[in-house]
């Protein structure tokens, strides 16, 4: 429980914009088998995310870069509803080399790492990310994002990614579009 509360309190608005609670255990979502981190690095724009009680604003994006220690720096930024820009820097890594797409990420030294699984990516156009945090076995909190290399993504690609997540039992009707218009 502490892990989930810490995550919710410390993850930037860009990522906390993606939370959906549910009863029972986490859906059995599979991360992709491989992840070429070098190809994954760079800018990703948030196209869809699960909603959260706190509304984030618009123009959410993440930039991934390799750190000297082999971890990935995650630089999230966007514009809040009041027009102020926000940003947060996180740390991500794959704890198990045999499951390179099952990353852990955190945005505060005082918070624990949380799951950040790459379910699907073609590296050049889209990525589908999922995370689930169990709450004492009685409930869970799902997080999901569809990101793209550009501020828009073809509707057929979005539909395909939603279908992939739905096949794992995730309610994709919870996705909300992120406004990427008029961004700095």
TrEMBL record:
GO CC annotation: cytoplasm; extracellular region
Domain named Lipocalin/cytosolic fatty-acid binding: residues: 35-180
Top-level division of the source organism's lineage: Eukaryota
A Pfam match: Lipocalin_2
GO molecular function ontology, one term from the record: lipid binding
Cleavable signal peptide: 1-18
Cellular location(s): Secreted
Main location per the UniProt record: secreted
GO BP annotation list: brain development; lipid metabolic process; lipid transport; response to reactive oxygen species; tissue regeneration
Record keywords, A-Z: Disulfide bond, Glycoprotein, Lipid-binding, Pyrrolidone carboxylic acid, Secreted, Signal, Transport
Family: Belongs to the calycin superfamily. Lipocalin family.
Name of the molecule in the record: Apolipoprotein D
């Amino acid at each position: 429980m502490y892990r989930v509360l810490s995550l919710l309190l410390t993850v930037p608005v860009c990522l906390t914009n993606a939370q959906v609670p549910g009863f029972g255990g986490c859906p059995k979502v599979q991360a992709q088998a491989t992840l070429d981190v070098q190809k994954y690095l760079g800018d990703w724009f948030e196209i869809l995310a699960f909603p959260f009680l706190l509304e984030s604003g618009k123009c959410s994006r993440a930039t991934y870069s390799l750190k000297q220690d082999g971890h990935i720096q995650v630089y999230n930024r966007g514009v809040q509803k009041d027009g102020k820009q926000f940003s947060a820097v996180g740390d991500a890594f794959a704890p198990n080399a045999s499951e390179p797409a099952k990353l852990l990420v955190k945005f505060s030294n005082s918070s624990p790492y949380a799951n950040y699984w790459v379910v699907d990516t073609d590296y050049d156009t889209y990525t589908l990310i999922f995370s689930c945090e169990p709450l004492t076995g009685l409930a869970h909190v799902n997080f999901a994002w569809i990101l793209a290399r550009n501020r828009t993504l073809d509707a057929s690609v979005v539909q395909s990614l939603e279908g992939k997540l739905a096949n794992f039992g995730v309610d994709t009707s919870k996705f909300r579009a992120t406004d990427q218009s008029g961004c700095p």
